[in-house]
Amino acid sequence: MADALDGDGVRAWVADFVAAFGAARVALDELDRRSGDGDFGTNLLPAVERAGRELAAAPAASVSELFTMLSTAFMHAGGTSGPLFGVWFREFARAAAGPGGLDREALAAAAVNGLAAVQRLGQAGVGHKTMVDAMSPATDALASAAGQSRGLRDDLVDAAVAAREGADATAGLIARRGRASYVGELSRGVPDPGAEAVAMFFEAASRSLAARSAAG
Amino acid sequence: MAARRQFLNDPETLVAQALEGFERSNSDIVRWNREPSFVVRADDDQRPRVAIVSGGGSGHEPLHTGFVGRGMLDAAVPGGIFASPSMIQVKAATDAVDRGLGVVHVVKNYTGDVINFGLARDLAIDEGLAVETVIVDDDLATDGSGDGPGRRGTAAVIAVEKICGAAAEAGADLARVVALGQQVAAGSRSLAIALTACTHPGAPGPSFELAEGEIEFGVGIHGERGIDRRAFAPARELAEMLVWPVAAALALERGERVIAIVNGLGSTHPLELSLMFTEAADLLDGSGVEVARSLVGSYVTSLDMAGCSITLVRATHELIELWDAPVCTPGLRW
Each residue of A19-65: pLDDT tens digit? Predict the structure, then answer.
């Protein structure tokens, strides 16, 4: 069997993310309130829930179609993070449209192209205290893992660990982009909610794949 | 500090329910398209002209929806509270008002607005429309750091929307409307102070706390902290704190003319705003700068924040004529 994510795998991944995001909504708002304007979780939750509903209702959709639905749901969210997640997921959809589906190489390519799209649109670099600070280490982990003889699940576990470390490390940074950049030094000590959401997304992948392999 | 009590059913439905009331109470001027959400003119004569579209987060009312109407905006696109509208909303509004002569997006300089308006513009251009963007970035408190998102857009957006709208109404072409918008934006600076923070709908408390004798200097319009805590003082001293840095940033010289906007941030009484205008006008008179036109009131608000901003717009004869041109919107008419 090819080591690639199938539709059920993506649906389980996104369902886990929807549940985790919903549970963290108030905490994400609070992170945002301490350095921005306090609406990060509230603004994105409708997009996350919309994505969860639409994916669950599309049992026949391909992996690429599922990521396109995810992308479109976030494009509808507005705000800053909505369209940035939208262009990020669009690259997963593009990568998964290839002949091998979302295999290890495609996943690494999706992460690399997704990061580039987010950086181009948001004009953010590593260390600016944004979602890029979790996306970038996760991308590095996927890119270097893809060359090793392991499996997709291990790659995503590595990505989740790297994204989590990146997100946690944003607490020590001063924001250079986004609403938090207006408060300067006051943003130090608070992790960036965008980076936190990226870490949650990869952790959902790692968790849902573990659950599936335990069950199967 | 206890949060100010608010009229509220549910934070989730606040914006939509408010837009419904806004449409019903101004049905002769505006129409609200529900899905995707944007506001257009009700009495549109469909005359060929350049169309002006603006928008941004809600919570700044009457901005932007209150400025839809003859002589100002063709469409306003409201997002959630303090959150940019989606590119899908912006694209739909752009399509709805385009008359083949081009569309100008007036965008306050915030990452989310710049991204969503930019994605909508790119898509519209792919489909053959002519769309140009005027970025408004007047807030002096966020000046200075080279490597950042740049100055925020605040109350100068009123002047940009008024002057672009008047020029479009008078038949100016796309390039001319954009050039005028850029001229106004480049010649405008603002600075604001808060006396109390705002409270998000349904939030348990204000977005920050101020001690008895403190004010927050250099606030934006999203409830975030400013750049400095300063001592509370009589109105004249607070006006000086705002007027002098703005005049200096514009390098205003004796004999120059300005449009002065004293803008309330949501909970400041008209009497207080008029007092602040008196002080600001006295200071400008004393330095030989002529206040050619003025606007005093709460136009670009930050929910229920108490405080005010002062905006100065370098004015020319042409800009003043466009400022004086008739306007008929829910929020501004003369």
Answer: 999 999 999 988 988 877 777 888 899 999 999 999 999 999 999 99
Contact A118, A126 (CB under 8 A): no
Contact between B234 and B269 (Cβ < 8 Å): no
Does ipTM top 0.95?
no
The per-residue pLDDT for range A128-146, each reduced to its tens digit, is 999 999 999 999 999 998 7
Q: Give the bridge partners for B106, in sequence order.
A: B54, B134
Report the C-alpha gap between A158 and A73 in whole angstroms: 27
Instruction: Pick the catalytic residue from B60, B64, B105, B200.
Output: B60
- The answer to whether the CB atoms of A76 and B88 lie below 8 A apart is yes
The SS3 of residue A105 is helix
- pLDDT tens string B278-305: 999 999 999 999 999 999 999 999 999 9
| Residues B2, B206: Cα–Cα separation, whole Å | 8
Boundaries of every domain in chain A? 4-215
- Return the domain boundaries, chain B: 14-187, 188-322
Residues of B with CB under 8 A from a CB of A: 11, 79-89, 110-112, 115-116, 118-119, 141-142, 147-149, 152, 200, 203, 207, 220, 222-225, 227
What's domain B188-322's architecture? Answer: 2-Layer Sandwich (3.30)
CATH for the stretch A4-215: 1.25.40.340
CA dihedral for B224, B227, B233, B235, sign (positive or negative): negative
Smallest Cα distance from B90 to chain A, Å: 10
Candidates B105, B200, B222, B269; catalytic one = B222
CB contact under 8 A, A177 and B220: no
Residue in B81, B84, B115 nearest the CB of A122? B115
- DSSP string for B148-214: SS-SPP-THHHHHHHHHHHHHHTT--HHHHHHHHHHHHHTEEEEEEEEE----TT-SS-SS---TTE
For residues B311 and B332, what is the distance between their CA atoms, to the nearest angstrom?
17
Share of chain A above pLDDT 70, in %: 99
Closest CA to B82 of B114, B110, B52, B62: B110
Residues from chain B that touch A182, judged by Cβ atoms under 8 A, are 141-142, 152, 220, 224
Contact A38 B225 (CB under 8 A): no
Give contacts of A 77-136 with B, CB under 8 A.
Answer: 77-84, 121-123
Which of A37, A82, A177 is the closest to B224 by Cβ?
Answer: A37
- State how far the Cα of B204 lies from the Cα of B208, in Å rounded to an integer: 12
- CATH 3.40.190.10 is right for the domain spanning B14-187: no
Mutual orientation of helices B235-249 and B270-286 as an angle, nearest 10°? 50
- Beta carbons within 8 Å of B214's beta carbon, 6+ residues apart: B229, B230, B231, B232
**Is residue B222 annotated as part of the catalytic site, yes or no?**
yes
CB A80 to CB B152 under 8 A? no
